[in-house]
Automatic annotation (TrEMBL):
Residues 32-397 form the AMP-dependent synthetase/ligase domain. Pfam families: AMP-binding, AMP-binding_C. Residues 448-523 form the AMP-binding enzyme C-terminal domain. InterPro entries: AMP-bd_C (IPR025110), AMP-bd_C_sf (IPR045851), AMP-dep_synth/lig_dom (IPR000873), ATP-dep_AMP-bd_enzyme (IPR050237). This is (2,3-dihydroxybenzoyl)adenylate synthase. Gene3D superfamilies: 3.30.300.30, 3.40.50.980, Luciferase, Domain 3. It comes from the Bacteria.
Length: 539
């Protein structure tokens, strides 16, 4: 395994192999095999483009040869920041075939985040679009390249431009390439980003073995077949849309992936009708938009059979509306880029589908709810969820001290989520221990936003909390102590934006206070702040 990553203990790995959980197959082979079985069937749809399995497979080979011709080597880290376009899928498979390790970044990421990802991973390449939603990524790439030491090549999805290798040039490098030697299935295929409980995202190594298994199991639980069409509503670099079962699980099943440009129902509903979409997945804030739009839409949504909703908490009043409004089944999903997935099952009792996040997708997942001392709680007890299993990481990349804190000695990952298990073994997420805000499904680390605020000249102290919001789930509220003038909310947002931060992390509200409340241990008392915010909302 790539240096800096933590492998599973040898005996555990051996057991997973013996049990056939890890099959020793790479993601590149998954596509190869799917192309053998479903060659002329449609793998990907975007706008008017329809790409068959055989085309996708050949395209991937050409791109892989192009990347290699431009110096990409096995083990190189390559940051990939692309919107939901077929190139994303082909480029990701191509880099995996070369044996390079992708670092998935989000389209919304700006200089601070990309610089961090490049520095943390030591990336030698960065794949980017020309512009996306009005933002010029070329400028961002030049800036990051100048400010970091390792970025050799910038790969541009777009026209030939000085300083960039255009992706279309790559395809010409070797029109009929030889296949590459297979990467080791036990090695890292790509890095996902942590939801951000600490200042900036951590890198989560996902191996071929673990991800092939995860997406296949997820597809099995969703009963995906080659008759299914999956609509990728969320950004595909998000684990949920990539492999839960998402893009990878659909391709494993021989189905069709339709890529949506935005999660907006105005864009998505016509796609559902046109392509007879059967399955999709999204976060609750998007589902809320869909539920409202479904009341008046003229699109025919009757092909939908299953919607997966997860990523943030939902009330029962909310989950109740989903199936009747959309005319399909609801599946609740608890998931994390780190691994563990729990799904409600199609034949679960209605009540548990409405009120729980279901059960782990694999019998080999070990899930425990523990108290502050690490003692396991009986069913019904609320404590921290800890887990280990065949697709849950054993360590983040290159952060040994942090790993020592978030993993137990026997390899359980401390999720930072508060949960309980029902008598039937269903998981219910009750809250969070970690300081993370979930705003419309985007995960924001309170600490990261605080750091940006503290960097502003007039800010002496800053505390950021999530406050409940009917529409987004949570909004970002900043409590600030200042010396000198107080910035208006608009100016504050502008000042943080100017630091090169993704816009979804900007504060939605600001409150100026003479001092921050402290706990007896001298830490900022966020519970007290949350209480202040709650009383304000009531008033
Ligand atoms: C998904 O992944 P991440 O890595 O962006 O965020 C993980 C965190 C969890 O630790 C938990 O705090 C929260 O998101 N979460 C939920 C939840 N599902 C995730 N909180 C309450 N209820 C749920 N159902 O968010 C993700 C990855 C794969 C599939 C689905 C979601």
């Amino acid at each position: 395994m790539l240096a800096g990553c933590t492998p599973w203990p040898t005996d555990v790995a051996k057991r997973y192999r013996k049990q056939g959980i890890w099959r020793g197959e790479t993601l590149g082979t998954v596509l190869r095999n799917a192309a053998r079985r479903h060659g002329s069937d449609i793998a990907l749809v975007h706008g008017d483009r329809r790409i068959s399995y055989a085309e996708l497979d050949r395209w991937t080979d050409r791109l892989a040869a192009g990347f290699a011709a431009h110096g990409v080597r096995p083990d190189d880290r390559i940051v990939v920041q692309l919107p939901n376009v077929p190139e994303f899928v082909a480029i990701a498979f191509a880099l995996m075939r070369v044996g390079a390790k992708l670092v998935f970044s989000l389209p919304a990421h700006r200089s601070t985040e990309i610089t961090h990802l490049v520095e943390l991973s030591g990336a030698s390449g960065y794949v980017l679009p020309e512009t996306h939603r009005g933002f010029d990524h070329r400028e961002l790439a030049r800036q990051v390249q100048a400010g970091t030491g390792t970025l050799r090549t910038l790969f541009l999805l777009g026209a030939k431009t000085d300083g960039f290798v255009s992706v279309s040039e790559l395809e010409l490098a070797a029109p009929d390439p030889e296949p590459f030697p297979e990467p080791d299935p036990a090695d890292v295929a790509f890095f996902l980003l942590s939801g951000g409980t600490t200042a900036l995202p951590k890198l989560i190594p996902r191996t071929h073995d673990d991800y092939v298994y995860q997406s296949e199991r997820a597809a099995q639980v969703c009963e995906l077949t080659n008759c299914d069409t999956y609509l990728a509503v969320l950004p595909v670099e998000f684990n949920f849309a990539y492999g839960c079962p998402g893009v990878i699980g659909t391709l494993q099943s021989g189905g069709t992936v339709v890529l949506a440009d935005t999660p907006n129902p105005v864009d998505c509903f016509p796609l559902i009708e046109r392509h007879r979409v059967t399955v999709t997945s999204m976060v609750p804030s998007i589902m809320q938009l869909w539920l409202e739009a479904a009341e008046w839409t003229e699109s025919d949504l009757s092909s939908l059979r299953l919607v997966q909703v997860g990523g943030a908490r939902m009330t029962r009043e909310f989950t109740e509306r989903i199936a009747p409004t959309l005319g399909c089944q609801l599946q609740q999903v608890f998931g994390m880029a780190e691994g563990l997935l729990t799904f409600s099952r199609p034949d679960d009792p209605a009540e548990s589908v409405l009120t729980t996040q279901g059960r782990p997708i694999s019998d080999a997942d070990e899930v425990r709810v523990v108290d502050e001392n690490g003692a396991e709680l009986p069913a019904g007890g609320i404590g921290e969820l800890i887990t280990r299993g065949p697709y849950t990481l054993r360590g983040y990349y290159r952060v040994p001290e942090y790993n020592a804190r978030v993993f137990t000695e026997d390899g359980f990952f401390r999720t930072g989520d508060l949960a309980r298990l029902t008598e039937d073994g269903d998981l219910v997420i009750e809250g969070r221990i970690k300081e993370m805000i979930i705003r419309g499904g985007d995960k924001i680390s309170a600490g990261e936003v605080e750091d940006h605020l503290l960097a502003l000249e007039s800010v002496a102290a800053a505390a950021v909390i999530g406050v409940p919001d009917e529409f987004l789930g949570e909004r970002i509220c900043a409590y600030l102590v200042t010396h000198g003038p107080r910035l208006s909310l608009a100016d504050l947002k502008q000042a943080v934006h100017a630091r090169g931060v993704a816009d979804y992390k900007l504060p939605d509200m600001v409150r100026y206070v003479p001092e921050l409340p402290l706990t007896p241990l001298g830490k900022v008392d966020k519970k007290a702040l949350a209480a202040v915010a709650a009383s304000e909302q009531e008033g």
